[in-house]
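Give me the fold.
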Amino acid sequence: MASYTWTECRRMFEPIGVDRLKYELELKYGMRDGLSCPVGGRWVVVFWSREELSRILTDPLRVMIFAAASSAGLRLEQLAPPDPKRLGSRASLTSRERSVLRLVSTGANYHDVAQALSLGEETVRSHLRKAQAKLGARNGAHAVAEALRQHLIP
């Protein structure tokens, strides 16, 4: 997993206009730079600094920080287990629907998906339509995005 500091991200994406507001507020309150570590699919542990971290952080140090963040995430999971009422219900996709979405996420067309799964093209379309309905998606791309967001497909 690649980890980038906020300064490195700013250099890559070069925000302009209103997109710079976040960075200006960080500087106003003394947060020169930071490193965000997403852990466990549910938590984000953020380390911030008054100095530019991209000059200080070596690769081994980044690994140590991510290990510490993962440890913190595991502890948070123990202290605050997922609340099904708060998280809502997840869509329940069949294995075929997940397979179709996974292949569509790679850019495969209906013909390629049908050949890979030994199905007919209309069956592939049917699985995709059912997955869209279960995920509340407007189209196939939205269904893939929702499935990825909900960690239903890798």
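The radius of gyration is 21 Å.
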